[in-house]
Design goal:
This protein has ten helices and 14 strands. The protein has helices spanning 14-26, 41-51, 60-64, 81-89, 104-117, 131-141, 159-162, 186-209, 303-317, 325-353; strands at 5-10, 31-37, 55-57, 71-74, 93-97, 121-124, 147-155, 214-221, 226-233, 236-244, 253-260, 263-268, 280-287, 290-297. The strands form two sheets. It has an eight-stranded mixed β-sheet with strand order 8-9-10-7-11-12-13-14. Strands 3-2-1-4-5-6 form a six-stranded parallel β-sheet, with helices on both faces. The termini are far apart.
């Protein structure tokens, strides 16, 4: 039996500490945490000591040179493209938090580099490992005829859902009062609404419909704080609505609803920051002269642990799936296509008003 994958971690911030690092540490039979890297020395030292990791680095290129290293987790904020390419050039397998990268040409370069290096690049598409999503996908795949997929996400500042976690912080760190308000900014629309938030729904859409759907229309909502888009793929019609809120408002809501000739299936997903809060899959259909609704909660098993277990199988057994580099590159392309259409509509509207 193959031994544990010798692992390095690049980026030890909040997302890494709350989700990935603790699960990687818990999966010691599968992974050996050999080195960590962060640009903040306080965070780096606290994480390294807390997990008992042998080596810590402030520069990811030093970590990539660790003798015997087999794979890395790229958990840095922002654009991951350059670090992923550096890791592939070093001959390492890569797990990278979503998005794969910010630009289409970088996504294409990563796909090519992964093929050349014969290394796995796995994107952090955590919703694909939710037991409720898997059940929804398996159920609707066998239903013939036209289907409507309606994905709706309403997102208040996630600080309300993560402040209970114990995290090593940089010196002088202060908790945010609310989400930084980038409203009216195209940078916010692209970086936050599309590449950071809508990407979760986009990869779920692609996994459910079985390919890259054709974009029919797209527009921004609430002064570029949100998005509405429609696609089509075979028998599928797809709607997506994403809204970001400046305050807690009505709370977090994420639902994937599939309407078929056989019934109505709705998956309700909790914030990823909430432990032991399973998703719920409900089915409503006509039975015995009336509408009947059944609700089935998913398991309490950590989707982040399942995600890392899959990464291990990708490294050791060559497993694949829609989170691999080629699929993630499609998602980057889909999101940029949405931006192109929305930006074009906005410019046309401005010209028509002038």
């Amino acid at each position: 039996m193959a031994g544990p994958v010798r692992l390095g971690v690049i980026g030890c911030g909040e997302i890494a500490q709350v989700m990935h690092l603790r699960h990687a540490a818990a999966l010691r039979p599968l992974f050996s945490l050999d080195a960590v890297c962060d640009t903040d020395p306080v965070v780096l030292d606290g994480v390294r000591r807390g997990l008992g990791v042998p080596a810590g680095h402030l520069d990811h290129r030093e970590l990539l040179a660790t003798p015997g290293l087999e794979a890395v987790l790229v958990l840095t904020p922002g654009d991951h493209g350059p670090i992923v390419l550096d890791a592939l050039a070093a001959g390492l397998h890569v797990f990278v938090e979503k998005p794969l990268c910010y630009r289409v040409k970088d996504a294409e370069a990563i796909v090519a580099a992964a093929v050349t290096a014969r290394r796995a690049v796995v994107t952090g598409y955590v919703r694909l490992f939710d037991p409720g999503f898997r059940r929804l996908r398996e159920t609707v795949a066998g239903i013939p005829g036209p289907k409507l997929l309606d994905a709706t996400v309403v997102l208040p500042p996630d600080w309300y859902y993560r402040r209970h976690h114990q995290v090593v912080r940089p010196d002088g760190w202060q908790p945010p009062d609310s989400r930084e308000d980038w409203g009216g900014s195209w940078d916010y629309f692209v970086d936050e609404v599309l590449l950071n938030l809508a990407i979760h729904e986009v990869y779920c859409i692609r996994a459910l419909v079985g390919g890259r759907p054709k974009l029919l229309a797209a527009r921004e909502l609430l002064d570029r704080r949100g998005l509405h888009a429609t696609w089509a793929h075979g028998d599928w019609s797809v709607l997506l609505t994403v809204l970001t809120l400046a305050e807690l408002g009505g709370g977090y809501r994420e639902q994937l609803r599939v309407v078929t000739n056989d019934g109505d299936y709705t998956l309700t997903l909790p914030s990823a920051y909430l432990d032991h809060c399973p998703s719920e899959l409900s089915r409503t259909r006509y039975e015995d002269g009336g509408l009947r609704t059944s609700v089935q909660p998913s398991s309490y098993e950590s989707v982040f642990g399942l995600e890392l277990e899959h990464f291990y199988r990708c490294v050791r057994e060559g497993a694949g799936g829609p989170m691999m580099a080629a699929g993630a590159a499609l998602d980057v392309g889909m999101l940029h296509e949405v931006h192109h259409v929305v930006r074009g509509n906005a410019q046309t509207g401005a010209e028509g008003a002038s």
